[in-house]
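User: ok so my PI wants both of these folded by tonight, can you help

Assistant: No problem, let's get them done. Here's the first:
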Amino acid sequence: MIDLHSHSIFSDGSLTPEELVDQACAAGLTAVALTDHDTTSGLPRFLKAAGGRPLRAIPGVEISADFSPGAMHMLGYFIRPDDAALEERLVWIREGRDKRNAEILEKLNALGFGIAWNEVAKHAGADVVGRPHFAQVLLERGIVKTKDEAFDLYLGKGKQAYAERRRFSTEDSIALIRAAGGVAVLAHPFTLGLDNGKLRELVQRLAGQGLGGLEVYYSEHSANLQQAYMKLAQDFGLVATGGSDFHGALAPDIRLGSGFGGLRVPDEVVDKLEARRDYK
């Protein structure tokens, strides 16, 4: 059993890279990928922690791409963690995130919530502050009853405290991952907000730009979605990948390796992905 979509304290997860490795081993996983948002800072610790363990640790990243009407995330697998060009571009993204966070805080406080920055930052662990951390503060304050409500009322796209941030184009996202020796995979396609026909057109276009895989197995994919995405992957010669999107305590119902309990990503996906690498 494997899991190719997980997060640590270096983005919006609650576990350190070392704790993530420990949990993966305890769950009996044979491979796990660390795919923090817009950062590779946790990868050296992650890879070191997996050394000598019965676990294949795959260096990864999750990049937000510019897309409408929904949200697009591009996963990169087998990237070089020390790739200078990749890091330079990710720094540009993170600087834009800092500006966005300041805008979100300003908008929330204009609504009368009186939130201090350190209240948000304490939930972010080692690195990137994101909207889930603002949601956690709203939940703790009793302003909302669930994190979903925080996004529905305040933090979601078009809502009262939403702010845009820097993103790469879809083509640049794929090119950046490939230039760092990695394989680009389109994450959780349902978040794109497209009907079947438009999704098919998009996947065909992305495949032409160098997309290597499609996230078919995912915690929130129904059996029907999984079947539809599998056909898309097969039709365009993409690797059907998958993962839980594990965040630890920030999404406690999702378990590493098994999602909500029924997720099963085939072990052979790792070898298929590695065969697509641009750098060996």
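One down. Here's the second:
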Amino acid sequence: MTRFRIRPLAAASALALAVVTSIAAPPAAAQFGGIVYDPTNYAQNVLTAARTLEQINNQIRQIQNQATSLLNEARNLASLPFSQLQELQAQVRQTQQLLGQAQRIAYDVTQIDQAFSSRYAAGSMSGTQQSLVDNARERWETSVGAFQDSLRVQAGVVGNIDGARTSMDRLVNVSQSATGALQAAQAGNQLLALQSQQLADLTALIAAQSRAQALDSARDAASQAQAREQLRRFRYQPPPAQMFQD
């Protein structure tokens, strides 16, 4: 069974119209038991009541709109009850620790300058034969250690992929179920943090690989210089000794 709802404003207007129609024909005034009945005054009172009811309905609608607006603002100001930041920071710290464990020549300008001046520069080729051998062994061990460091960083970056995938799935689900603008913005910020963590891993990987390649290239260049020095020494012949006769 269908139920029809008649708004107060419509009901009041219909009542006022019926009253005005019904009292249009009777005389201007009538007296019943000593009470004077004025149809015109009655119709005006009904219309005034209808206008008052309309104003009340408008005020009620304004209050409802304001309440809805406040609720929407509350949703927009609600903070996101989820954070992936600690996990992302832990992954970044793990990659930093792998970089900090670099063997021999690490990511330090002063240390690099000292190592190259003592073991890779041309001046290091003027030492004894034993020093040449020792420097060559040191350069080889440094290159091997750099490649090992690069592989360790690669393993760490690959290990972070699964964590990044899990973080991305959680953040996407949270952003899709966000109830307000603030929650959506915070979820978006965390997705950007995830992207920054992945870029940091990529930067670390490139740095580790470049370090290994640079040290190996420097070793090759130093080995060629050492080979030329050793060949020069091998070809060197002392002047013939002179015999003094009486």
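Confidence is low (pLDDT under 50) at residues 1-6, 8-12, 19-32. Strands lie at 30-32, 35-37. Good luck tonight!
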